[in-house]
Amino acid sequence: AKQSIFAPMAIVIKTPEQIEGIRKSSALAAKTLKHLEQFIKPGIKTIELDQIAEDFIKENHATPATKGYRGYKHATCISPNDVVCHGVPNNTVLQHGDIVNIDVTTILNGYFGDTCRMYTVGEVSEYAEKLVQTTKECLRIGMEQCFPENHLNNIGHHIAQHAHKHRYSVVYEFCGHGVGLKFHEDPEVSHIAEKNTGPLLKPGMIFTIEPMINGGKARCKVDRKDGWTARTIDGRLSAQFEHTILITDTGYEALTDIYGDF
């Protein structure tokens, strides 16, 4: 997730060769999250999950984009419960009933692929399960707005509509972003926005959609200790799903949805 700064946009249209490279990196990012499934159990530390992810990425001849980015020291962001995004892996032990987001960005042959998903630890509460499922629905609804000549901000408009219908709030302090040739590119992809505004979508654009949906207020606060971990301001739960999206001639391809979950 990129911190929203609403800067002018210079959106890169990717070439067929670039798209193929980004597709392969995106597939590896998705495989990394799939690989982690078996390890999501009560008692495991988030730092252990980070090491497992890093080992898997390196075994597949790639590197984690987050490691070394602006001084960040880890291969993933791991965000349990009230952590909205950018959770720093540490000695936190996952407990029965937790929900946790893991965010992975791979660099394979110079190309970036970015994805995240929620995991549930053991049996979770009905409240937590509903938040996770609604957030997944928000991503799918946002993806449905991805087709040529549609306005970019219709993605966020429809995401917010769905979240608000279920009485959740939408984080506005962080956003999706262009990706592929760099970690963060234009455009910024807001997850709450005015209808029929923003640039028109064109074939060859690649960006992330990554709604962060909160059970309480939309605001975040960043931990002073590590300078990264963003939490809900009221301690309520937060959930997030993310895919890297390619705009095609007829619609979209979710480059990180290689398992057909959406």
What does this structure look like?
There is one protein chain. This protein is 25% helix and 26% strand. The chain has helices spanning 16-36, 46-59, 126-143, 154-165, and strands at 2-3, 63-64, 77-80, 83-85, 99-108, 111-120, 169-170, 174-178, 185-189, 206-209, 212-214, 220-222, 230-232, 238-240, 243-247, 252-254. The strands form 5 sheets. Strands 2, 3, 5 and 6 form a 4-stranded antiparallel sheet that branches. Strand 8 and strand 9 (185-189) form a beta hairpin. The radius of gyration is 17 Å and the shape is globular.
Q: Tell me, what's the shape?
A: globular
Proportion of helical residues: 10-25%
User: How many helices does DSSP assign?
Assistant: 4
Secondary-structure content class? alpha+beta
Low-confidence segments: none
Overall mean pLDDT stands at 96
Q: Main sheet, how many strands, which sense, barrel?
A: 4 strands, antiparallel
